[in-house]
Amino acid sequence: AMKCVVAVLALALATAHAKINLNGYFCASCQSNPTPVTLLPTIHPAYTTVIISFIGWDTNGTVSNAWDCNDKTCPKNFTLTPSMVKLLKGQNRVVLMSLGGQDGAILTGTEPASFVTNMVTGLVNISRTFGVDGFDFDIENREGDVVACSQVVSNVISGIKAALPSAIITLAPQMPDLYPDITEASLGFNAQAPLVSMQIKNLNAVQIQMYNTWAQVETVAYALQYAPALVKGFTVTGDTTQYLVQIPAAQLYLGYPASQSGAGSGFIPPIQVVGMVQTLATQYKIPLGGLMTWCIGWDQQAGWQFASAVAAGNANMTEA
Fold first, then answer.
1. Helices marked H in the chain — which ranges?
2. What crossing angle do the helices spanning 146-163 and 113-130 adopt, rounded to 10°?
3. CA pair distance 173, 103, nearest whole angstrom
4. Is residue 7 predicted with pLDDT exceeding 70?
5. How far is CA 283 from CA 198, 226, 273, 276, in A?
6. Global pTM exceeds 0.90
7. Cβ–Cβ under 8 Å, residues 171 and 195
8. Radius of gyration (Cα) for the chain, nearest Å?
9. Tell me: the pLDDT tens digits for 188-245?
10. Contact of 288 with 299, CB cutoff 8 Å
11. Sign of the torsion angle spanned by Cα atoms 277, 278, 283, 287
């Protein structure tokens, strides 16, 4: 689950010696030193995409501000401004805003067409107001028919792309939401498989949360099995329809906690995570799009250990 927001999205690895891109979440209510206002302009340069969290919504699809932190419930005096986004983009970063998160609203799949229209209108207005490059969908709370839920989000994505053709769109599914070992789509497993199947051509990145799951899959060894399975593709059945889930390596990002404080479980030392990406590129011939981490604030608190490991890995690739 995510609570910090600034994510980093960039160009995909084209060769085994290409750059590892790093997506990082930044949230004003999360840990930072001393404040989110001072953190935002000083983010480690290894972060290529900053994802600001979160955007909320109501049952009508009207989006709401859950990214600022400037009242009694969140007294950090942080108010996002267009100039902050401009500063990040001036540092050659992609800037996205994320919908949902661990505490986001529940998607039911029964939302009317007006819900989609209202959400698209609100998101387009946010993009034009703040100048962000696009949106990340971190939909973690859903109930009912998972295919219907996927269709709602798919319709929103299509609406955004119709209004803003150059918008960058990413998904942040939890690992069980894309699980090759099970062939059915349900609330427990493969809940986002239909969505990925519907929208893969419009997605710049599928950045999977490889944490807060269970011990057997929170390892480098599992990632070395999991990533190839997603790239190869697998079929899931939902509501009697079969959905092919096949994510090109350039669009696949694996996400890990920036520090031991970043998630309840799933932390792997960043140097090992970077080594895993290099192994996938060189031995498996699967150059990932990059890595995602939760979150930038926790990385700062840990002395930028995650970003530094990525930067060192990129330096070694350049020297190779």
1. 36-39, 82-90, 113-130, 146-163, 193-199, 220-232, 270-282, 296-301, 305-319
2. 40
3. 15
4. no
5. 30, 15, 15, 10
6. yes
7. yes
8. 18
9. 999 999 999 999 999 999 999 999 999 999 999 999 999 999 999 999 999 999 999 9
10. no
11. positive
